[in-house]
Amino acid sequence: MKAEALAYCAAWAALAFAGWHLSGLGAGLLLSVGLFLIVMPTSALVLSRSGNFNLERGVRWGILALAALALASYVDAAV
After folding, report:
1. Distances (CA, A) of 29 to 12, 32, 33
2. I need a labelling partner for 23 at 20 to 30 A (CA). Which of 7, 14, 29, 71 fits?
């Protein structure tokens, strides 16, 4: 469980760094702070309604994957 949490934090930080490196400071901040404002309430909502930690974990990773896809699409469109 701790290894998964560490991997998630590392992936989130890597995504924010990639956003900063590829698209500038605004993208990096959006991927760090902006995702925080989306992930935390969503996690709380899923846990409070279902109590299912596996579902919450899947939702968190799904949001991170969608953010990575959005960054890749943005970078591809900007080139």
Report:
1. 12, 5, 6
2. 7
* pTM for the predicted model, two decimal places: 0.89
Q: For tokens 């995504």, name the residue.
A: 15
d(CA 61, CA 4): 10
11-70 pLDDT tens trace:
999 999 999 999 999 999 999 998 999 999 999 999 999 999 999 999 999 999 999 999
The predicted pLDDT at position 24 comes to 92
- Comparing CA positions, the residue from 12, 1, 6 lying closest to residue 61 is 12
Q: Which of 65, 43, 66, 64 is nearest to 55 (CA)?
A: 43
Cα–Cα dist 17/13, whole Å: 6
- What is the residue whose two structure tokens read 């924010």? 16
